[in-house]
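I am writing to request your help with a piece of structural work I have in hand. I set the record out below, with my sincere thanks for your time.
___
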Amino acid sequence: MVDQSSRTLWSPYIRFRNAILSAVLVMGTLSWAILTSVDRSNWKLKEPPKTTAHHFARIQERTIRLPMPGGNRSEAIVAEQYSKFRCFGDENLIQEFTERACVFENICYNLPSGQFRFYRRPNSVPKPLFFDEVERELFDFHSKVGTAGLVAILHDTPISQGTWSPTVHPGAYPNSGAPEKVVTLKGLHMLFATWPPDDNLGHLLWEDLLGAFAATVRLNIRDDNAVPIWIRGDLPDRLLWRKFIAGFFPAVTSHSIVTLKDYVHAHSTALTEDICFEELLAGGNIRRFIRSAQHHNIGHEPILLEFRDRVLRNHRIVPEILPKQHRIVVSHKRAASSGRSFANENEMVEFLRQAWPTVQLDVVCFSDLSITEQLHVFTNTTILITHSGGGSAMLPFLPDGAHAIILDYLAGGGGPVIDNDVPGHSVSMEAALWNYWPHVKKLYYQIYSPDELRVDNPIEAAFENMAS
């Protein structure tokens, strides 16, 4: 039996040293990967793997597209068009809007009412639009109780807040009406929004934007020229948000994000009543970081990798090129910024320099760098040492075979308990998502007691998850 008192011998530095030693074992693996998978004469893959996008294109090519015969319906009825939709996610419970994204065809934004309209055949006996296992047949896109919509447009959505549904309108799609009153827009359009108070790059990138990209993949509607439409008033004017839009959106679509108000204005005249969309995507912004949302990541590795590679190639970085020598990077946060950081960073860095004097070691404040500069740092790093939270947001851009040492946080202890974490447990904050990036070896540095935490802000004195 192990003497429990010997636990005191395991100082944070000894555990830190062991984590580093484990990471350094990547040397042989990394060298082997370079020698066997890359032609060093021109640094190109000998046999480039087929991308996820290649397989998506093949799926689109073999999709069934057969018109139904007219039967006994009159030519006038056959000529009429109505809206239709299809979704992924929970199609049995209308209340599960956070699990769902849908694409609508032949749907219009009606300017006089300020509503998106879904056009349904005006039968004397209406047909249901949704079959709910509890509420049975539903004839619009809302539950019979409450006001929540069909899909969530924010990744952190309380009931009835941040959801969206079109209004069901009896009658035919108005594209055959007076041309001066109707404008029809071709191609895919995407309703988009981000969590309003969020200036955390990890949430913006891996829950909001990745959510939109993944929805187009899962619904088989990928369009590199899709129009993203912001539907929450004016575009945010925060520095990080602007950096996020400029640095990552072009990997998903070549079209700039536009507000609904400006887009409608640009395509209408004084006579226009309806702006109609050939395809309109709504939903897909889903939580990925907390453990209760881990099911959102299961089986998504091909989509995650395709998204990562798109971002890198958009910044003219070839994902397959690997570093030729080791580089250790320590993620640094300025003292003036709130949130998690290393309280004893100077001691830690000195320890690393003495232990590995010949290895390049850089302490990097990523907020000082452009997105392109950050990506160059990450793709040339073999060992990343970072705190949890926003400082680790770019971890998936590490090269194949790299190691990441990520500082845990201590759950509870008088502060809030996140996502049913057990008070006193060492918790890996983003592991629910990071564990689905198999190309990076993760080492979670555990916190054993409150003695290993320092709270700099007295207002957050009880919030160990915000400590150093």
Q: What stands out?
A: DSSP finds eleven helices and 21 strands in the chain. Residues 181 and 271 are 6 Å apart (CA to CA). The first strand starts at residue 38 and ends at 39.
